[in-house]
Amino acid sequence: MNDSKDHHSTGSYVEPRIPSITGFGQRKINGKPKKVLDYSLEKCNDHSGIPKIDVCLRLKPRTNSVPTGLDTLTILSDNIVACNNGNARDDVTEYTFSSVFGPNVDQKKFFDTWVYDKVLRFLNGNNELLFAYGTTNAGKTYTIHGNINDPGMIPRTLLLVFNSLNEKLMSQCKYKPDKVIAAHILDEKLMEAEEDIRNNILNNWSNDKNQDDLKSCMTQVDEYQTIHGIDQLTNQSIVKMFDCLKNDEIASLDHGNVSYTVWVSYSEIYNESIYDLLITYSVNQKRAPLKLSLDQNKNVYVKNLTHVFVQSAEEAYKVMSFGRNNLRIASNNLNKSSSRSHCIFTLKLMRVENIENPKTAVISSISFCDLAGSERLKKTMNIGDRLTESKNINTSLLVLNKCFSVLRENQKKGENHLVPYRESKLTQMFQTALTGNNRTGISMAVNVDMSPNLFEETKQVLFMSAIVRAITKTKSKPTSKPRPSFAVWVANNRKSLKQAASKQNTIVEDESSINNSKCEQKSMISNEEFEARFKEKEAILRKELLQQFHTILNNNNEFHKKQKETMLKNKTEMYENKIKRLKAYYCEEIRERDEKLALHSNPNLTYDNNKNKSEMENFEFRIGELEIQKEELLAEINVLKNVHDLRQEDIDVKNREIENYKAMLDEANTEYEQMEADLNEMNNKFDVLYQELEDKNLEIERLTGSLEAKDNYITEMELLQEERISEMAEQKILKYMDEKMETIVGLENTISKLKTKNKKYNEEKSNMAKQYQSLKQMLKAAEQSNTGNTNESRLLSKLTDKESKISQLQERVQKLEYELKDNDNKLNELRTTYDNLKEANVKPLTKSIAVVTNLNNVELPLQMVNISEEKENLLAKSDRKPQRRCKNKTPSTNTKKTKNLEAESSDSCDRKIDEAIANIPISTRKRKLFDNKPPLIDSSNIPSDNSMNSVLTPARALHQISKLRVKQ
Ligand SMILES: Nc1ncnc2c1ncn2[C@@H]1O[C@H](COP(=O)(O)OP(=O)(O)OP(=O)(O)O)[C@@H](O)[C@H]1O
After folding, report:
1. Which of 33, 97, 136, 891 could cross-link to 895 by cystine, CB 3.0-4.6 Å?
2. DSSP 50
3. CB of 87 closer than 6 A to ligand 1?
């Protein structure tokens, strides 16, 4: 036990009073104290092996104004205290801590016992957070900072750290920590900048030096006590302080080849904004709040917070002092220099291995958080800004309590409720420490002022610390789903609802394409289903929400009812007892007085004046006691009022919660209304679509009817067309046959004409032979007469003309021969086709369409149509009147006839026929004409020459003549 003697030396409310009016203030415990809190039952049982949050209790020494024997706490052992409000009948609650430090425990002992290990862990690479929690004026600042004569945790830690690092400290700020675990290597320029910041702070740290400035600043920010309540620090005082502290204690670190740099930062959370305390602002300048951010490992850190490189404990302390000059401190009814903000002083240690070529660095930190004290607004009598500050302080502490409670509940029940870290800046900053890994330690020093007038607050603080103590320090799981909210549910389910709706719509659409009547039915079902599901879900949700609200309201009601009943019961009992005791006392008094009166009225007895005097004194003494009792009763009434205040606050909180739930309900209603409106809109749309669908169905039915009628009409028409086509085909075949006959006759005529022509040619040939003979004779005569060249040349030119004429005729004859040959062939083919057609015509009429179709592809019978045309051409050629065959301009009579016969369906057929005829080459049609005809000139009549052909041309004849001339 750290200060167990206190327990014995001082009276306590735990001890019950002697049951007499005179012993009303003295108490004595009957039997064992009761343990009413679940948490206090869980006595530091570390059997789980999981580290718990280290929670110690530190009691502030009572002030002279508080009489002895009125303390609300009794230390039972070195880690257990009992709490009682002074009423013998009230429950006594025991609280267990990792250690309990009584009022007489000094700073050194406190540091050595509770802080030292944590500093060692920090030096070995751990992250540590130490914070002081308690009511206002309970000694938090004293514990964290202390004063120049009695330094607290921070100066002692600084000394231990720098003593331990000593020679391993780097002289340059080359390596700087960043965010939570990151680090930078600074270049020369940045190092210079860091040095500037450092020098600026070290030159201006003293509140003594710039006291006047600060005073003027103070007047600007009303009654803030930036100086009062903080030591007037000078260089000497700091040196003196560290000299007094100096001891040889250093932490033994396995240094190896490592170097260290130490950086400090100092910030405060004031009215829910974070401010950098190491930045100076001019008098009228508004401080810029800093933001919280997350590093890549989701650790929370203060963005852009100044970190100052320090090389000794003195330097670090000066930097801290510089920051404290900017701190928000003010006086209230309970504390002359009450912290108006939560301030956090952090030491960051960077261990760099192999400084010449560093590859890794280990960063650890130790933070000291001096929380502003929770305060009863009525007691602090704060107004204006102080009131706002108080509210903010209380709110952030309330959130801190909530976070601890939720963490505890989660661990106890294995649940995963959302921890409301984000509800205040303080808890957000603590989040990393609370959810961090095993390298993170979190420790809470609970400061308590044992004054009876702070009993309720103290009880709250102890209650909270019991919860924190029970929290095991494990890495918390990611936050679970938040409180059920209608809006959230709707947001989550809207997608699935929409999907369901769209899915059903899809079915409707798909089916509609298959069967209209089915579709109609299906769409109706789907829509109903959708609505039913929607309503079902909505009903479930409403039910759930209502149940939740009811449970919460019932719980609240029950809780308050129970509390009210217990309080009423206790107070009734208390007052009944008091009344009983008073009654007994006055009865006794009356009896005594009656006895005395009886004695006095007895004439045998003499009235003793002295006795009367002493009785009077007794009466006076009793009256004095009654006065004290009255005061006590008044004090109790005050306590009751406090309790009432507390309950009122609880009720306010609950009311706020109810308000929240109401807001949620309103939101849900709005959402519901919105959804109803959506649904109505959807219904309207559906109605419109449904109407459209019905219209479309009617349209489809109408179209189907007309389609059927058209189908019938088409079938009829097809039959008619078939009949017509077969008729036409028959007619066409007959016509073709007639035409072919005509063509054959025409060709036969042509052949006979050609034969006649051939005869004429033969005659011409014989004439020419005769002419030749006569020319020959004429030549002979000319030679004989020897007369002249003139006749010869004339004859020669004549001869040449004739020769060219002959050769032209020969060519033409040759051509005609070829064409005749072709025509013969054609004629043969036509005859064959004609025979075939004759045969085909015998076949049944039902096959006539197929025949016509085939005819379209067969060229031969149709070629005959234009044979007459060929014939005409040949005749034209033979008459030396070349004619260009142009079918379109001068259609043959046959074609004209065909056109007259052409019906709608036979147009294409005729076109094909025409094309087929047009494709027949003329040469093939004429070739056969002059087959087997004799040559035009008989070569036997012409003198033969080996070097020449047997046919005598005029040139050759001339050549012969000239030869003969030479010979002569
Ligand atoms: N253990 C202690 N020994 C001696 N004096 C103490 C102790 N604890 C507190 N005090 C004194 O009590 C007074 C109030 O303490 P302190 O300012 O630390 O309270 P606090 O809890 O920080 O208050 P607030 O929350 O209002 O800032 C100071 O004058 C301080 O010196």
Report:
1. 891
2. P
3. no
CA–CA separation, 208 vs 203, rounded Å? Answer: 12
Question: Is there a contact between 393 and 375 (Cβ–Cβ < 8 Å)?
Answer: yes
| ipTM, interface predicted TM-score of the complex | 0.98
The answer to whether 349 and 199 are in contact (CB under 8 A) is no
Helices (H), 786-892: 789-840, 848-857, 860-863, 867-878
Where does the pLDDT of residue 241 fall: very low under 50, low under 70, confident under 90, or very high at 90 and above?
confident
> Residue 465: which of 130, 83, 95 has the closest Cα?
95
User: What are 823-867's pLDDT values in tens digits?
Assistant: 788 878 877 876 776 666 544 444 444 434 343 333 333 334 444
User: Closest Cα to residue 123, out of 363, 367, 430?
Assistant: 363
Unique residue bearing structure tokens 């046919």: 951
Top mutation candidate among 66, 331, 335 for ligand 1, by most atoms within 8 Å of CB: 335
Residues 6+ apart with CB under 8 A from 325: 205, 207, 210, 214, 226, 227, 230
Number of C-beta neighbours around residue 786 at 10 A:
7
**Ligand 1, atom 1: closest residue by C-alpha:** 60
pLDDT of residue 409: 85
Burial class (CB in 10 A: 0-12, 13-18, 19+), 735: middle
Mutate to test the pocket of ligand 1, among 106, 109, 113, 142 (most ligand atoms within 8 A of CB): 142
Say how many C-beta atoms besides its own lie within 10 A of residue 350's C-beta. 22
Amino acid in position 777:
Q
263-306: pLDDT as tens digits: 999 998 888 889 898 988 777 778 889 999 888 778 889 999 99
Q: What are phi and psi of 625, to 5 degrees?
A: -60, -45
* Residue 95 and residue 459 in contact, taking contact as beta carbons nearer than 8 Å: no
Nearest to 877 by CA among 925, 826, 935: 925
CA–CA gap between residue 374 and residue 756 (Å, rounded): 145
3-state SS, residue 350 = strand
Alpha carbons 161 and 264: distance in angstroms, whole number: 12
Amino acid identity for residue 895 in this structure = T
DSSP-derived secondary structure for 725-764: HHHHHHHHHHHHHHHHHHHHHHHHHHHHHHHHHHHHHHHH
**Tokens 């005594």 belong to which residue?**
592
How would you classify residue 434: left for phi > 0, otherwise alpha for psi between -120 and 50, otherwise beta?
A: alpha
Q: Is 935 in the pocket of ligand 1 (CB under 6 A)?
A: no
Among 409, 401, 328, CA closest to 133: 401
pLDDT tens-digit map of 13-40: 333 333 333 333 333 333 344 443 434 3
Question: Does the beta carbon of 60 lie inside 6 Å of ligand 1?
Answer: yes
Asked whether the beta carbons of 283 and 220 are under 8 A apart, the reply is: yes
Between CA 69 and CA 334 the distance in angstroms is: 21
